[in-house]
Amino acid sequence: MNQHKRLNILKRLREKNPQPTTELLYTTSFELLIAVLLSAKTNDVRINKVTSNLYSVANTPDTLLALGVDGIKKYIKTIGLYNRKAENIIKTCRRLLELHSACVPEDRLALQALPGVGRKTANVVLNIAFGWPTIAVDTHIYRVCNRTNFASGKNVTLVEKKLLKVVPNEFRVNCQHWLLFFGRYTCIARRPRCYECIIHDLCEFKEKVCKH
Prior knowledge:
This protein is mainly alpha-helical. 59% of the residues lie in helices and 0% in strands.
């Protein structure tokens, strides 16, 4: 795909949603971090239900730590990988208290040193909580970038590198959400809604899907 097409795609996505933001519900950077930790292999709707109950009881490193692993499990047992996630939350809370004065660090290496936090989670937190021009490539964004040929790559790391190279600075902060929502609601996995797609004429997917 050439850069002229990419720019037009980004402009259309921006026009449709000028100020995109996460669908995860949170009030602090710490609540966001925990929500993102919980969201692996789970949709945002389910995470919001879980965190709504959890945060009404504990929503800081010290109060979550006081719940303990078993206490946290009671609130998150309806989501996937809840055993491991509960353990990582406790370890993360302990590290935040010991090393960062209970604050979420605005630092990639410090974030990725937290249990359960990989590059994608760090990118999400840096982008949403601190406004960094990062792009967290999840399964939706990976699919969209390869299917449309916007930024193709054999793995999420390569797609991220390509995106950071081809997305101009003015679009960088919001690009993550535009591509995510586009993949979540239009360019879906099994049967993309090409018939209602706002970039239908720019997309290089050869097997476009008709409504009927």
